[in-house]
Predict the structure.
Amino acid sequence: MQNKLKTKTLPGLIELFRISNQTDGKSPKTTEWYDETLKSFLAYLGKEKLGFDLSTFNIEAVRTYIHYLRSRNKFSKPAKTEKPSQLSPKTIQCHVRTLKAFASWLYRDGYTTENLLRNLKIPHAPQKMMEPLTENEIKKTLSCKPENS
């Protein structure tokens, strides 16, 4: 295994995090989501010229990233028929959960002396309320016969 001192760059640590998630049995879908989210964070750091050293991964950088996500369009190039839309609060919340998971892993595996994002609150995302079926909709549903009858 590589010397931990050689992997103090965020891209190297993110690669080790990916491998750890795979060997820990996380689902491929979870691992893929973590990869995409962390790549987005790296792209933000590059765009802002903040660097990729582990020291740039801190609560202030993540807070400015959250601010950036709130103003960012959902798609970098929306289809001509679509109007630009923002990321949902739930998506932003998922980005923050990924970054917090990464910070926890960094601490557990000894790359940091503390969980760097322990005090970061996960942004609020409103819950969608489901509208109950009306009495007529219930009757209509119950009156339907299965196709194989």
About this structure: Helices lie at 10-23, 28-47, 59-71, 89-108, 135-143. Residues 93 and 122 are 6 Å apart (CA to CA).
